[in-house]
């Protein structure tokens, strides 16, 4: 799941979302009644199960009984109980639904979604997420020697790491371009104590991903001329080589992007792109 949903799920499951009952416990002076229905204290179980903003949703056909059964009145563990019973997919959909319910409560959000609109939004969210997942794979274009622009909505991030063998220093170049080929941002760096060309490339790759994350780019295509690295980035297997840790860190960063792909380009094209 995207990081924002994971973080939300963790807070929900641990009972630490800022519902009114939790705020009061922390000494923050708010009313305790639910701002939507004013029927009971706004606890997590009220907000996500009993409140009218939530209860009708769980009665829809797409949900199994376990979502409405009232056994898990405990503030915590609602989701973990469900995760033992339900399949992973239904749990993910449930979690996204809770997330949408939570944002539907937002007072700034004056026009609240109806139950049907909530579920339509959840379905759309899941569809887009799955689409993004399925495109998270490498397209190896070994013959490509010319830089090509990414499709609309994507930024292409070219990285290159080159060793200056004499003094164990590597130079790193990262260039971010949009769909028109316009340079959005670029960065370069020098790292010492690097002796292996693949390490230089791995450092460049990691820098490229960290840089893109900091720029807040949501959809990226990472491109480099180190074919092995590009393959490693999408491989499920753990890399035990010298660059294993860098690859693992880069893989973790993939989750920061809504859409992610990696491509290989021949050296000449990459040199032209990164300058
Ligand atoms: Zn309520």
Topology overview:
Elements: H1 3-13, H2 20-25, H3 44-50, H4 52-58, H5 78-85, H6 88-104, H7 115-134, E1 139-140, E2 155-164, E3 169-177, E4 183-192, H8 197-214, E5 219-224, H9 227-234, H10 244-254, E6 259-264, H11 267-274
Parallel strand pairs: 1-6, 2-5, 5-6
Antiparallel strand pairs: 2-3, 3-4
Bound molecules: zinc ion (ZN).
InterPro entries: RNase_H-like_dom_plant, RNase_H-like_EbsB-rel, RNaseH-like_sf, RNaseH_domain, RNaseH_sf, RVT-Znf
GO molecular function: nucleic acid binding; RNA-DNA hybrid ribonuclease activity
Domain Reverse transcriptase zinc-binding: 1-58
3D architecture notes:
44% of the residues lie in helices and 16% in strands. The longest helix is centred in the middle third of the chain and has 20 residues, at 115-134. It folds into 2 domains: 3-134, no CATH class; 139-274, Nucleotidyltransferase, domain 5, CATH 3.30.420. A 6-stranded mixed beta sheet has the order 1-6-5-2-3-4, sandwiched between helices. It contains 11 helices and 6 strands. Helix 3 crosses helix 4 (52-58) and helix 6 (88-104) packs across helix 7 (115-134). By secondary structure, the chain is of the alpha/beta class. Residues 34, 36-37, 39, 46, 51 line the site of zinc ion.
């Amino acid at each position: 799941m995207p990081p924002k949903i994971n973080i939300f799920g963790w807070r929900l499951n641990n009972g630490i979302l800022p519902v009114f009952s939790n705020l009061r416990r922390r000494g923050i002076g708010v009313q305790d009644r639910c701002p939507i229905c004013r029927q009971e204290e706004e606890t997590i179980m009220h907000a996500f199960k009993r409140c009218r903003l939530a209860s009708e949703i769980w009665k829809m056909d797409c949900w199994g009984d376990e979502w409405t059964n009232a056994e898990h009145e405990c503030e915590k563990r609602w989701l973990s109980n469900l995760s033992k019973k339900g399949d992973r997919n239904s749990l993910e959909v449930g979690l996204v639904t809770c997330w949408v319910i939570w944002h539907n409560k937002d007072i700034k959000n004056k026009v609240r979604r109806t139950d049907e609109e909530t579920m339509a939004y959840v379905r759309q969210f899941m569809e887009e997420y799955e689409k993004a997942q399925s495109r998270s794979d490498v397209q190896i274009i070994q013959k490509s020697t010319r830089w090509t622009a990414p499709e609309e909505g994507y930024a292409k991030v070219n990285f290159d790491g080159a060793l200056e063998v004499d003094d164990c220093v590597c130079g790193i170049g990262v260039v971010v371009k949009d769909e028109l080929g316009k340079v959005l941002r670029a960065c370069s760096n020098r790292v010492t104590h690097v002796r292996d060309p693949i390490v230089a490339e791995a450092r460049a790759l990691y820098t490229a991903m960290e840089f893109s994350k900091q720029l807040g780019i949501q959809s990226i295509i990472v491109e480099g001329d180190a074919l092995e690295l590009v393959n490693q980035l999408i491989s499920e297997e753990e890399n035990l080589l010298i660059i294993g840790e860098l690859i693992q860190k880069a893989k973790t960063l993939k989750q920061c992007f809504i859409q992610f792909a990696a491509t290989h380009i021949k050296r000449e094209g990459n040199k032209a792109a990164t300058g």
